[in-house]
Amino acid sequence: MSSGGPGPVVGVDLGGTKILTRSIDPATGRAEGRVKAKTPAGPDAVLDTIVETVIGLDDWQAARAVGVGVPGFVDRNGVVDRCPNIAGWDHPVPVADTLAKRLGKPVVVANDVNCGAVAEHRVGSGRGVDDLLAVFVGTGVGGGLILDGNLIVGPRGKAAEIGHVTVVPGGRPCGCGGEGHLEAYAGRAGIDGEVRRRVAAGGTELLDELAGSGPIKSRHLAAAIEADDPTVRELLDEAADSLALVIGNAAALLDLSLVVLGGGVVDKLGEPFLDAIRASDHTGGFGRGAVEVVPAHRLDDGGAVGAAILASDRLSAGPG
Amino acid sequence: MSSGGPGPVVGVDLGGTKILTRSIDPATGRAEGRVKAKTPAGPDAVLDTIVETVIGLDDWQAARAVGVGVPGFVDRNGVVDRCPNIAGWDHPVPVADTLAKRLGKPVVVANDVNCGAVAEHRVGSGRGVDDLLAVFVGTGVGGGLILDGNLIVGPRGKAAEIGHVTVVPGGRPCGCGGEGHLEAYAGRAGIDGEVRRRVAAGGTELLDELAGSGPIKSRHLAAAIEADDPTVRELLDEAADSLALVIGNAAALLDLSLVVLGGGVVDKLGEPFLDAIRASDHTGGFGRGAVEVVPAHRLDDGGAVGAAILASDRLSAGPG
C-alpha cells in the first residue's frame, strides 16, 4: 500500500466524450500537468489518442507508470470487454498490453467507477478506512468496493455493479433488461422513466415542465423538491429507501462500516438526501446506524487520480 | 496458495457440544488421526480441552501448524468476540495467541462456517474456482466468501453473514432482532416459527404432528413435502425465492458465477430444493442462469479440514 517510490504517475480518465490525462502524485492525489482530447470513435483511434495525450504531458518520460480508467468492464489482465458509451467499442481489447508496448511503461487499466472509488478510499472521504463501498448515483448507479485495502474487481471485472442488485423482485424495468434493480429506482434515468410513465398516466406535470423535452437532470430533481412536488418527493423517498436497503445489505454481507456516496444526484440533492437514506426503515442487514454514510469528497478528476494510484500500487506489489 | 511444504496440519472444529481434532493433509483434505472431546463451559476450559485434543494426536509434534474453527466472530488477529453457543463465552478471547504460546506452533483461528467454505473451495465442490460464495442452510443460514482465491473475513470477522441480509423490508422477525432477513425465511428456526404462527392461526397441523412438541427438523420438512402439505410447500417456495434473491444479488455485487449450497436443510431436501432456487423468478442481479448453484461436497469434518487449510496457507504466506 506504499506509493512505490518517488516520481509522478500518469492518470488517464477515458470518458464517452473526452479523454483527460494528468500527471499525478499518487501519495497525495495532487494532479499537475493536464492534457485533454475529444474521444474518437473506435478502440484503435481511442488508444492512439490516449498515447498522444500521455506524451503531451511535459513530464511523461519521468512517469513511473500509467493508469487508465475506462467506462467498461476490465478483467484482471487489463482487457476491456466493451465500452457501451464509445462508438465501435463492442469487442474485447487488450488495452493494458497494447499501451504498455507503445509507451514503454507499466500500464494498469481499471473501470472508471472503480477508479473513483480508489480515489475516495486513498485521498478522499474514505481515507484511513480499509473496507468500504463507494456508490455513485448519476444517470445510472455504479460502485466500487475496497476490502482490506484492496480494490475488488471480480473475475470478469464486474464486481461492485451495485446498480443491478435487485431491490424489488419483478419491479420497475431496468435499462439492462432486468427488473426491480437499484438503478431503476435511484438512477436519474430510472426516475426520469418513472416520472414520464406517471405524467402519461395523468400525474404531476411539474417535472415535465422543468425538464422541457430533454432528459431530466439532477438540478431539475432538486428544483422539484424545492417546489415540494409530491410525485418527485415520493420517487426520491423510494430512491433513498432502495439505496438504504442495498447499502445495508452490502454492509451485512461484507462487514462494512463505511459507505461513501457521490455522483450528480447525490451532489445536487445534498445532505437532505443522505439523511433520507440514513433514516430509512429499509436498513438491510444489521439495522439502522450500523453503517456510516458519508458524502464523497468530490475530487477533481477522481477517475484519473484513482487510475494513477492503482498503477502506483501495482508497481509496489511487483510483477504478478 | 501452495500447501506450504510437507507434513500434516492439525485442524480443530470447536462446536457447541463437541470438539473434533484431526491431523490433516491440507493439499488433499485427507484427515487421519482423530481425537474427540465434549465442549466444556467457559473459554478457559475450552482452550485447555483444545490443547488436550491436539496433543492427543499421535503425530501432533510433526504438525507444522494448527487451525481452529470456532462458532463465533473472529477478527483478523484471531481474537474471538463471543460464542453464543458456548456457555460463558461472552467476551473477547485472544484464541490464536493463547494457543500458539501453549502449543509452540503457529495457530490460525477462523469462523467455523468460513472454514466449511474454505474446505468446499479447496477440496470440495468449488475446487478450481477462485471466486465463490458458500451458503449453509440449517437452523440458521451462514456463509463463507472466497474472492480471488482468498477467504474474505471482514474487519470484525463478520463478512458473509448472509443470513442477515434483508429480503423483505419490515418482514418476518429474525432471531437477531431484525426483520425480513434471509434466515427468517430460509433457516429451519425461521420456518419453524412461521409454521407455529400459522398453526396457531388455524392452518395445517401436519408439521406440528410430525415434529411433535420439539423443534422441527430438516427430515420433518422433507416428510411434509413428501405428503404434499400446502403450507410447507409454500414456506419452502418462499425459502427458495429468498435464497435465490440473496444469492443472485451477492453474485451481481461480487461478480460470482458459482454458489455452493450446503447444510442440513439443503442435504435433506436435495435436488428438488436446489432446482426451486435455480428456477426462481427472484433471481437478483443479472438474472436467471447467470449463477451456477451446486450442492456442497458434504465433506466429512469440513470445518476441521478448512481450518487446517487456512493454517497451512498462512505458513506459505509468511508472517504478517
Topology, element by element:
The structure is a homodimer of 320-residue chains.
Chain A: E1 9-14, E2 18-25, E3 30-38, H1 43-55, E4 66-70, E5 79-80, E6 93-94, H2 95-103, E7 107-111, H3 112-123, E8 132-137, E9 141-147, E10 150-151, H4 182-186, H5 188-200, H6 206-211, H7 218-226, H8 230-254, E11 258-262, H9 264-279, E12 292-295, H10 302-317
Helix pairs in contact in A: 3-10, 5-8, 7-9, 8-9
Give an account of the 3D structure.
The structure is a homodimer of 320-residue chains. Chain A has helices at 43-55, 95-103, 112-123, 182-186, 188-200, 206-211, 218-226, 230-254, 264-279, 302-317, and strands spanning 9-14, 18-25, 30-38, 66-70, 79-80, 93-94, 107-111, 132-137, 141-147, 150-151, 258-262, 292-295. Helices cover 39% and strands 19% of the residues of chain A. The first copy, chain A, is an alpha/beta fold and 320 residues long. Chain A contains 10 helices and 12 strands. The mean pLDDT of chain A is 91. Chain A folds into 2 domains: 9-118 and 300-317, ATPase, nucleotide binding domain (Nucleotidyltransferase, domain 5, 2-Layer Sandwich); 126-295, ATPase, nucleotide binding domain (Nucleotidyltransferase, domain 5), CATH 3.30.420. In chain A, helix 3 (112-123) crosses helix 10 (302-317). The two termini of chain A are 16 Å apart. In chain A, the strands form 3 sheets. Chain A has a 5-stranded mixed beta sheet with strand order 3-2-1-4-7, with helices on both faces. Chain A has a 5-stranded mixed beta sheet with strand order 10-9-8-11-12, with helices on both faces. A two-stranded antiparallel sheet of chain A has the order 5-6. At the A-B interface, helix 8 of A face helix 8 of B.
